[in-house]
């Protein structure tokens, strides 16, 4: 690093406020490069709280500005806070997996206190007066907290279980362009070692089974109903108490299991079953297993991330996921994996994989415990309707009738795609609030030809408030219909109408069935929502090691189309 020159001396002579203003015009990487020009400037920039606070504000995925001073209290500096934000920002957004078909949309967002929270949206029916008057049901999936030991240490990971349990672990790595979120077991070896992904599917399932049930920790009764999202000022005390408990718990029970314990339970032929009465041995602690253990958090997320078939019936080998150069296609033995480190524990990894998509829905690998990021297009000129929308069938929208006290809530991801030179608007279903599904998640509920206006009139003159309906735009399209079985739907002609209140409605031409949608702010709906304490709202907890697949026909939680394997 060079000594200071005249240019650096001019910068050093500036007040910190001016230096912060200059910093706000630079990217974080440019500011770091500037700090490397000389020792004095390096010291001045790295110690300038105002400069790094400005960088936190510039981050597009940063928490709201009023939260940054609150978050700063958990970090030694704003520079450390920025590192935390940059490392976890790729995990923000909407994630999904095709199984279970009834609902696996997971939203990851910043918490009120320094954390990243992930919630599963539960399939549900709208109350009698629509979504604006009733809470959105959700269940926690996992959360990530900063490591008190500093930004150089892995962030703390907590997998949420059914009811009142959490499973501590760590965040192993997050790719800047993460599109797949993997639940794994980390051996934390200092030397190059066989990775978890190189184990066979059966071994991966067994070791996840083993680790998850041994690191399970029950949440204290006074914190079971504590909020995870802040809705009012009265929540602050419980939020802080809950975070303190999580940090203290991870410090004592860090979720690490001694390698010898794992080998004694999982070694040999690989068929040895862990004793239900054995003591739980966690690195750095020893505690008795709780009676009646039911796989809590692991089973909740594992079922959510269970094996699936692609929407188009393609085999996993042709799903566009290339095997890594480390030889992932060649399995290693479980014994070699366990012996690569002194301890093992749960980990979360954000990875970037080559994925193909079909109408905005990723073709998902059938042999990974993973969530897949849904590509979210931003509205733009000529593509105003891109984004997340929600609504119900029937008119007037969002209103229940005497014969149907509730209406199934649909979440659709609207995106644009050019096909043969024609711009199409595709509405991909990601959630359906019924106890059965006619078509799998990832199906296109309707496709609109943006360049083809329709002459079809809107079937209704007034809305639910007896106000006249004004149609701003109308386009030709096709809506989903029964086709060749569960995964191969057909289509019928229809029209999309853009109404004066910002809603859109797709009407099937023959039946006059109508799907009315409004743009959603899912984060705000969650803050006003109602937390459920069981990850399985429509699916009861199944026995240990049970995984489910859906048949190729209509799937239902009430019939026998669920096949257990």
Automatic annotation (TrEMBL):
Transmembrane segments: none
Ranges where the record places region Disordered: 263-287
Positions of the F-box domain: 8-55
Source taxon at top rank: Eukaryota
A Pfam family: F-box-like
CDD domains associated with the record: F-box_SF (cd09917)
Signal peptide: none
InterPro entries assigned: At5g39450-like, F-box-like_dom_sf, F-box_dom
Protein name: F-box domain-containing protein
Species assigned in the record: Dioscorea zingiberensis
